[in-house]
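Methods: example folding runs. The two proteins below were folded one after another, and each record is reproduced exactly as written to the output file, sequence line first and structure-token line second.
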Amino acid sequence: MSSNVEAPAIQRRGLMLVLSSPSGAGKTTLSRQLLENDSHVQLSVSCTTRAKRPGEKDGVDYKFIDTPSFRGMIERGEFLEHARVFDHYYGTPRAPVEAALQGGRDMLFDIDWQGTQQLKEKGREDLVTVFILPPSTRDLEKRLITRAQDSPDIVARRMAKAADEMSHWAEYDYVVINRDIATSLIQIKSILTAERLKRERQQGLESFVKALREGR
């Protein structure tokens, strides 16, 4: 005979979803659309020493700080990961990420392979990594030129670096070839759904099943 007492609730610890790619492969666009489509995903706002680009907002796109302040945060161990890319520093503050995960919120990271390696060392059980590839090198170069955010010299440097960045694809859990933004977004959302349902991320599942077996 079943009881009127409800089975214990299941809560979920948040996860860290990393999207990485060479510049121009579409990860920033995919990140923004994922945030717009899923209210349970929160962007991890990185600190950087580079200047703001047109349209960027401090505290929304990045936390823009000077180099001495950034180095001070490194010395105090306040970053989950940090790296120097194209003469500027980038890093993920530890405190807001840990608070979000404890609260069951998923954190989205737009970082490179170096940062991803550091996250693996500090929180592998919470980490889900996705590498975004362009459909072709020609398409990648076209996107970099079309977005008109960088000088021709920077575009050339980014293209030269892209081959090295793409060589790290096999270090990621999933790979998405971004031929079409809409299709790629569906694929990333599918990955996120499956990872949220993993047994080890559902806290209280053992008690829930025990209660079901006892007829509660």
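Second run, written to the same file directly after the first:
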Amino acid sequence: MKRRQLLQAASAALVLPRPSWAQAFPAKPIRYIVPVAPGGGNDMIARVVAERWGKLLGQTFVVENLSGGGGVVACTTTARAAPDGYTLMQGYVATHGTTPATRKVNYDAIKDFTPIGMIGATPNVLTVGANVPAKDIKEFIAYVKSNPGKLSYGSAGPGSLTHLTMELFKQETGAFMVHIPYRGIAPAINDLIGGQTQAMFPGLAAALPHLRSGRMRALAVTGKQRSPQIKDVPTMEEAGFKGFDAMQWYGSVGPANMPADVVKRLNETQVAVLKAPDLAEKLAAEAVEPWPMTPEQFGQYIRDDIARWTKLAQARNIRLDE
């Protein structure tokens, strides 16, 4: 009799619905790692999104700034965390795009992470100093080619998006300019305005004040659509550069092998946050447009971005750890 009762109990247990991780998630605060120091656009985006995301999930997001190694410290910390959804990170174009493409790092930007979702992106802008006579890309290319070896461009540093985007432009046009790397975008912009360099590809947020003052001129923006901040400036694609959609992007990732239902809950709530009109207004301060994606779409975007910059780095012999 006991044996029969035990078998019946076991059979009943097999058909009972298993509790979903997402039903109980989150049961405690979520650690949100930002791979840069406090202050600046990347940090601001993280805090604005995390505050609203936490309210929607009913738990606090604890933002933790882990700068160092160009994002390597944050990436390794995140990759080694328990894949339970309680440690997330704000990945961006450097940590999951340009850095793995140009140097050896102790993490795999694809295999060691679970993509949650894209947050948003801002274009880079092909800009020239006020003393450069070109008014559009066609004129600029002609100007560069008619002054071989005489012109230079600035970047925020070797291997940065500002560096690689201009190298992509040089590759596609056959134009030659000397690369002058700076320690950050601000000094690079200062020298462009001062005439020490002639061109660069800064992010739109950094460029806007100088474009509005007339000290710099925008010739085109990256991305598939014109920026609402400078609607009269064409995209690189409109100017004839098909697929030239390099972007400064931000998104959320977690450690590899997170439960699918937890990822789904995190993504759905993040997308809801991104669709709120007041968030778009906040992100506009950094010229970032919300860009919601599914985890699958975001994962593919990361793979494509790494492939794009790896191919360019190989073609242009850009390797920063040799």
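Comment on the second run: The longest strand covers residues 113-123.
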